[in-house]
Design a protein that fits this description.
With about 400 residues, the chain is an alpha/beta fold. The protein is about 40% helix and about 15% strand. The protein is built from 16 helices and 11 strands. The strands form 3 sheets. Strands 3, 4, 5, 6, 7 and 8 form a 6-stranded parallel beta sheet that branches. A 3-stranded parallel beta sheet has the order 9-10-11. Helix 8 packs parallel to helix 9. It is globular.
Length: about 400
């Protein structure tokens, strides 16, 4: 792969200092020579609520949203699933389609405004063409229910607007076609509408994202899908059995047997029980966000989330922050369980926490590569995990082989 000019300059300078940690010349070189493809990065919600541009340099974590084009490039990312997050209050009050369209529209505007740096990728060949041009490839990915009732016509229109990945289950509630991991089951997995949607996603060539799915939903979708499936930001029950969204070994083995990819979630909530306990028990913020009326207007919901994005991000105490080596143990567990061809990375940078595998900026991504080198991984394995596996499966699902 082509080494960007910035990376070549950094390599020539030898070891780097990232987030207070030293990145070796070997790790820096391997990282920037590899194709780095992250399965879950948040961008557009911040711009929707607070304005600005994805190219605006942000001074460190801002409400957990310390992601911009500059530090994404500095982190060596060549492609990522650009996450569009439909927050729970929109789906709860059936405004999720409008919110999805707002996010899609703004994402396309922002990417077009920065077309010299980034482009939307619709399939595998797009990603490689964009990479050859020295740009970042963005795959538009929706988190939250695209339509609470699961209308395939809505799905097709979103596809026509460039959406290529949908999280099948909602984050905070069971939707009209699939059970979430957060709730008591309603459908015992997926219902007939869910099967219709799954078939339509397969026909269109869309990535079926199983993050936040219940075990029954996960197992049924894996079995019934014509294509491999992806979990874009997934924790493991083996490391934190308390986290409701974490996946069992049985779920991971089923996904891999179908040819899918598990993108290990950077969030320490999913793999650090002590961080999880801290997150659950920390005192409430003194600046409470106002509650919504029973039947809110759309703008009342939007303003509530605008206020949440204006709040300063909290930096966790050092005693609950796990080292990157602990995160790589999670990666290694997955590799040993399902094989190096089925493991990728889903950082969730910009997704609300000011700690991602002890990193506070996506610019520090090379530290993951260094930790994998120290684990004794070969260059081939590291390149697969950094992006090769996700690119292979994305090409198979969307076309471009």
């Amino acid at each position: 792969m082509k080494v960007p000019a910035l990376a070549a300059l950094l390599v020539a300078c030898g070891a780097l200092l990232l987030g207070g940690q030293t990145l070796s010349e070997e790790a820096n070189r391997l990282h920037h020579e590899s194709f780095v493809f992250d399965a879950h990065v948040h961008f557009i919600n911040r711009q929707l609520y607070l304005g600005g541009d994805i190219a605006d340099r942000l001074p460190g974590p801002v409400s957990g949203i310390g992601v911009d084009l500059h530090n994404t490039k500095e982190g060596g990312l060549d492609a990522f699933f650009l996450n569009l997050y439909v927050e729970p209050d929109y789906t709860k009050h059936h405004f999720e389609v409008k919110q999805t369209l707002r996010l899609l529209d703004l994402a396309q505007q922002q990417i077009q405004r920065n077309h010299s740096e980034i482009e939307v990728a619709l399939h595998g060949e797009d990603i490689e063409r964009i990479h050859r041009a020295g740009k970042i490839a963005a795959v538009l990915d929706l988190e939250g229910s695209f339509d609470f009732d699961g209308d395939p016509g809505v799905l097709r229109r979103l596809y026509s607007l460039g959406l290529r990945s949908v999280q099948f289950a909602d984050n905070a509630q069971n939707n009209g076609y699939a059970d979430s991991s957060c709730c008591e089951p309603k459908w015992d997995g997926i219902n007939e509408r869910g099967l219709v949607l799954l078939r339509e996603m397969n026909r269109l060539g869309m990535v079926v994202n199983l993050a936040h799915a219940s075990e029954a939903t996960w197992m049924q979708v894996v079995e019934l899908s014509d294509d491999p499936v992806v979990a874009t930001h997934q924790g493991l029950l083996a490391f934190n059995p308390q986290h409701p969204s974490n996946a069992s070994d049985k779920m991971l083995e089923a996904l891999a047997a179908k040819g899918g990819v598990l993108a290990v979630h950077f969030s320490p909530n999913t793999w650090s029980p002590r961080f999880y306990e801290y997150s659950r028990n920390k005192p409430a913020s003194p600046k409470a966000i106002p509650q919504l009326p029973p039947i809110p207007r759309f703008e009342e919901i939007a303003n509530r989330y605008r206020l949440t994005y204006q709040r300063p991000g909290e930096v966790p105490p050092q005693e609950v922050v796990e080292p990157i080596s602990r995160f790589v143990q999670v990666v290694d567990y997955a590799v040993q369980l399902i094989g190096e061809d089925h493991v990728a990375l889903g950082s969730d940078f910009g997704g609300g926490l000011n700690s991602r595998a002890s990193m506070t900026s996506i610019a520090e991504y090379g530290l993951i590569t260094q930790a994998m080198i120290r684990k004794g991984y070969t260059k081939t394995r590291i390149r697969k995990i950094l992006g090769g596996n996700l690119l292979r499966v994305f090409r198979r699902i969307t076309g471009g082989d």
